[in-house]
Records
---
Amino acid sequence: MARDLDIVSRRGRLTRGALSVWAVLVYVFLFAPIVLLVVFSFNANRYGTFPITGWTTKWYGQVFHDYQIRDALTTTIRIALEVTAVSTIVGTAAAFPLVRSRLPFRSGIRIAMVLPIMIPGLLIGVSLLVLFTSVFHQTLSPTTAVIGQSVYTTPFVLLLVAARLQGFDASLERAASDLGANTFNRLRYVVLPLLAPAILAGALFAFTLSLDEFIITLFLIGSHNTLPIYIYTQVKFGITPEVNALASLLLAASVTLIAAAFVLPPAIDHQVGES
Amino acid sequence: MALPGSSPGVPATQPADVALPLGRPGRRTWSSWLGEYAGFAPALVLFGVFFLVPLGLIVCYSFWQTVDYNVVHHWTVDNYRYFFSVPTYVSTFWATVWVSFAATALTLVIAFPFAYWLARYVPKQYQKVLLVLVILPFWTSYLLRVYSWLTILGPEGAINRFLHWSGATSKPVSFFLYDRPAVILVLVYLYFPFAALTLYASLERFDWNQFRAAMDLGATPGTAMWRILLPQIRPGITTAVIFVFIPILGEYLTPQLVGGAKGVMIGNLIVNFFQGAQYTRGAAAALLIAGLIVVLLAVFRRSLEVEDPYGT
């Protein structure tokens, strides 16, 4: 193979070796803080850091018995479910005209819809704070946080579904139409099943992003707490093993959801292909 | 691009699914128009009312006045004048630009050799898994990724405990925390996945035979990289720069948690203004950042259109 030729030379091998070492260091850099956090959450010492004086799961027990954490968890999940519903519906619906219609200024609209991902969340949070408090005279609540988070999560769903729609053979739909299917039936039996993997992935991403969202929520949540907000208020007083345990649980939840977002959609795809 | 449809009678130059609306071919009524655009309505409400309008509001606020905690609709540039009349604010503004620049440069310098290694030396079947491992931290909580560094850098953190335990120091050193270097380190950590992903995406498409051809014709590896590789992956590099630099400009949490008084960035100023109910001054500070972002996006618009970092 041609690719192997430049590895044969001594210089090529050296470069390759040096770059491999670099890559290993990069992975250490990326995972060391997270791994340490999890290790400290099982550490018996009450300072939440080194030295490791023994292993315990008692911090996890405290997490589960803390009523503040339980409150925050309920709020977090409620918000995440609502954000997922809003962004999945809005994002999926918007993907159709974005991909299919002869929209004027299509690339401009595309950029405007992706902008919430790019601009700092701080600006979204601050500007919505002004809108809700000074214009709508609304009390801040989990609902205002849902709206703020949805602005940020919807573009992710939109991009995923639009990508799927782009590679979608429109003649399938035309065939269904020729066979007498009306708009609803075409949507129900042809389009949605084919888009399902992308919609599911989008929903899982939206849920995860909402679960972990911090800065927009900080401005819009009012007197309630989500888990990230709760952790933030605790971190101000220093590192505690309980927060390490809670953080590890939240990390595990995110990783599980993201793994699902990568694994489940192709599985559905396979099923659709078979049936 | 849409797949070519198989409808007869449609000029080949037109994508078939655009030329032929679904439903009744050949007839475009207002209802088909409605069907085509109705999906936009919820997005229009969400992005219009809750994204564009608030941003417009911030623009207005930055030109209005606060009198006795009430916002008066009186147009003025006083908020900006005030911002630039306080030396701490001005230096914070420049420090923010500087920190963003340094963190972006460092992120790219670390990410490029990594992406190069991944695209060139790793067998194709493992590339995807290794890439997912890099992106994985990005999908975990942003707050926790910053927090996790406290357990390493903090006065009670891993480094200090280790130094103390090994006898190198007798009391905790706060050198690692509460200053700009700590902020930059954590920012590099946070935004590395963005840079690695975009750089890999463009390196992956590069045809390494061109590289070898250049070297066969006598180019040194350095020349080949500079003259052959770099020009071809330039859009990828620009995208990486944009996607790292812009979010960092608005950073709040990282300087707040690991920066201390010496690591303050403009995001912290904005939050302080808003928490102190100085909405108009906060709006002006926010707009300075937003303006910078708009300028950057306008300048680099073309390369952003070429490259789509989310792979759509």
---
Amino acid sequence: MSVLVFLEQSGGKFHRMSWEALAAASELGGTVYGVTIGEAGEAASKPMAALHTIADPLLAGYSADGFTSALEQLIRAKQPRFVVFPHTYQVRDFGPKLATRFGRVFLSDAVKLGPDGVTRQLFQGKLNAGFTFPSEGPIFVSVQAGAYRGDALPAGSPAVEPFAVSIEASVIRAKSEEPFRESARAVDLTAAEIIVSVGRGIKEKENIPMVEELAAALGGELAASRPICDNGWLPMERQVGSSGQTVAPKVYIAIGISGAIQHQVGMKGSKAIVAINKDADAPIFEIADYGIVGDLFEVVPALTEAVKKAKGG
Amino acid sequence: MKILVALKQVPSRDSVLRLDGEGAWIDGGDLSYEINEPDAYALEAGLQLKEQHGGETVVLCAGPEGAAAAVREALAKGADRAIHIEQDNIERLDTLALSSLLAAAAKTESPDLILTGLQSDDMGSGQTGVVMAELLGLPHGTIIMAIEKLDGAIRVKRELEDGWFQHVTLPLPAVLTIQSGINKLRYATLMGIKKAKTKELRVVTAEELGGTPASQSACTRVFLPSRSKQTQILEGDARTAAEALAGKLKYEVRVI
């Protein structure tokens, strides 16, 4: 049985989640092969039986149509039992399309792979659920960020095998422009040792200063989950999560943040995590070292006072 | 421009979820429901495009009889008409089966643009729009933050990871999955609610759409996640808990 792992890269730089997908693929108990669109690069020293590289001028920039066509050709030729992806934004864009082309369901964002199926999170991480694999291959699965460790893989020396594809220019319907960033980031949250982060539970913009005072008392940086920045209550550059910054401070204090996976991937590497939330079942408590279940409008001012007192004492 | 908005009804975000007796699904008894949040942004985008460029906004929803509440809310906000695929236990359908039903209904409408949220708050698979696009043979764009109508095409702003964006131009018809926060949601007005009652709400069954496709993957059990860390919960009133936490920050985490 063979397992094909898609290793995402951008101009030679591999997405770290590619190695996590590779680690997850070994749980399936087959012979693991890799595929990347671009040069072998760092992937040439990872543990795989072989690495297929695909190069074509039409694949120089990403497109769902181009990548789907190229991988469809490889999968039809090699007929793997499983195709495993990192659940990146790029894979979210073409993975389900590729699976549909084979008439197969795409099991997305799995947190655990097993011999018979996957575990996925439901309801924004409040519950987990087991899902069976389809009885017929190829079986398409993507792996959630951080679900497996990609930094502890043994070294390998796969045979690098270029795979020739034929793609018609007319297949690619989207015309993509160069990626860009909105503005230079004035705030580098990654350098902060203490981060005080605020979420939906704060309810109104007028309540943000309360959290700001706590951050000031601690000498930390203020950050937020996505909805806060979407509402314009804090600038986008203070957003932590999959679409914002990834941080790992000494302590991350999550205030009124439920802890949806999109937020967790940006902060779960913090040395210590504190959660203050009124909902004892909020997913943030699953990864918190310290927690207060209570009304943040009472707890936060009290904590600011207590911090000031502790600093003075 | 004819715009089709696919939306889903999901349990409200602050729902307290309980497992049913068998651990097969959640106990839906006393839950309240709402339009899936990213889908609400897709609806708003559809309404704004219609207001700017003319045409029609049609809502498409698959779900049980009770999901009609979400459909009526969308009509009250300004959608012109709606199609409700009445189907119980849609959580038992895998993403391909559910998307196939939606695509079959969408096909009868031949819209210029199909919009849906980038993911649902309940199942969170994040693929309905992309699968629909492939089934219908249409190009798609995901995680969309802005839409600009061109002649026979649209130019959209895609969100990439880590603060990056990209503009992409797609020929119409096309499918877009919309990111939360792309616009400001409107509320239904009293007038809107009144008008909604006169709007067309067509109920169709899976059989009329060619039957429910067999699911390839089944949910076998639902369970509470195990905690990856031992959380020290600091008890007491706000002041007591806050002081205990300050002590931890000082003597255990050592950041004070």
---
Amino acid sequence: MQVVPTMRKRSWNAGGKLFATILAVAGVTVACLYAGVNPTTTGFAYLITVLFIATGWGLQKAIVASLAGVLCYNFFFLPPVGTFTIVDPQNWVALAAFLVTAIVASHLSASAKRQAMDSLRRQLELERLYSLGRSLLLDSGDQRVPVRLARRVAEAFELRAVALYDLSAGQTHLAGAEDLTIPADILNKVLTGEMKNDESSDCRYAVIRLGTKPAGVLGIRGVVSDTAVDAISSLVAIGLERARSQEIENLAKAARQSQELKSTLLDAIAHEFKTPLTSIKAATTTVLADDQFTGQNRELLSIVNEETDRLDNLVSDAIQMSRIEGGKFKLHRSLIAPNEVINTVVAQMRARLEDRPVEMNVGRDLRGVSIDRDLIQLSLRQLVDNALKHAPGHSSIGIGADRAGTEVVFWVSDDGPGISAAEAERVFERFYRGQVNRHAVPGSGVGLAVVREIARAHGGDATVTSEPGKGARFVIRLPLAKEEIE
Amino acid sequence: MSSAKVLVVDDEPQIRRVMKTTLTGQGYEVHEARSGEEALDAVREQRFDLILLDANMPGIGGLDACRAIRATSEAAIVMLTVRSGEEDKVAALDAGADDYVTKPFSMPELLARIRASLRRIPISSDSALIQAGDLEINPAARTVKVDGREVRLTPKEFDLLHFLATNPNVTIAHTRLLQAVWGPDYGNEVEYLRTFINQVRKKIENDPAHPKHVITEPWVGYKFQP
């Protein structure tokens, strides 16, 4: 352990203290000579001086003082006075006793002082760690947390320099008066545990760990114990962890809010579209109801009418999808015959399907099931739309429903290029577009995500089975209610 | 050609324009209002046979306007709205609307709804007064009294109650009831019946939660018990 008294002001340098020590011994000598006290009293006076010096300035100075004291004692007080020789063997014993006492007492006093300093220093470090921990826990938490962490560590421990390397961001945050850049090779050595102290740059390092994973490196230049360095790095780890989880939460919140905003916006826009559509539809159907329009005019008006319906369906689907994406939708289940659902979807898609062969296939013993009719029809329209976009011109499209165990399944199949196994799960992700033809096929990548969301709201799921080159089959599985199963 | 008086309430001028043109062409006398507030003023000043009410308007919305109109007027009300959710339909009917059309609609469909809403079951002048306990139904005057106190029913509510009461103790299926009161184009709108029967019960039953006269036959229909 590196021991450094940090409390005392360094107003005296080592040379000054040495000089003061000599001066003190000389002073005692002069005083005793002048007062003409006997050698025993003088010996005690030297001893007291040595003890004071040991208490104040440590063992080193005390030993210097004892040696100086012995010399002066011998020279000035022990007969023959004025020489370094001692005649009386009794005085040898006295001198030796003085020297041993001075040194032992100095040693005891210095180590007591050292221990007092030590515990004082520990107490101070603890107080600093406590205030550091407190300030970290009270931190509001944002992207600038690592910067503040470094600064707080530097301030709390009065360090010359602090460097906090954030592993995930790859950034180093500096604080303190001096500049401390951690070279890359040292960083690696620290992270692998090869290095803790770097004597050449007077630095100590600690790895910051979240759990067992390293999250960064803390570099410190300044006066602080190893224990404190470990404790600081733990506190910094907690601070980083807190900042990170806060950041994740904020991101999720922002994503949620932007999703909601988008849905609300789309909803509002879609409603705006409905008004002119209403006028067009009302006007067109009024004219169409009049029998005087025949032939070409009637055909052209019919196109306007049908396209109005198509636009209306697109807008309605956009409203529905934005609600489902925004997560604010409720199921309105009612008892519906699956073949009715399939027939409606095919009828709604008739204009888009043109003369493509459509194979409808509904299980014969399939009775009514309790589902949200509008949402399941929306899902099937999305799947048919998807098939129309990906399957070649005149290939057939299959659509059907059947019972499978405790579930009712709806499916849409096509003879398109199919989907690779790797993409089979990803196509249901929001905004994911197929690798092969993402630029050739129009779309937003939302449709299949919505289909899955609707299926899951029913307690089921949407999946796809496909062999590349042999088409794809999208399946919506919905669990039947208990009474529907028997 | 009918000459019923129709009030078109919509904040969108183009929609009022196309409605006015078409409905006038069909022989209706068309008046316009640009908001729920204007509609309430118009209803206070004159009597309308039918009100076409947009559900989404600034100011007091369609539903509140519907409730306010229903409190003072027996005109048939058809709500026009862009929403088509089940709960929106029920909300419109609960507010007192007789029918509900989703925008955009085809004109023949709207005209059919208008005819159905204006439709009254023809009642021969000699049809007798129906007396059923505390209830008295007078077909000639189209009035209903409970314990001698007159209660106000909308025309559709009256037709519904009258039709049930002329076939006492017989369960009448949903489809038949709908077609009799609303017309042959109807048959699947069970939620209409549920809402209208509730309204009738509130007006004629002492304890609407435990009705004595209008009885529900689950999954089948309704029955009148004298």
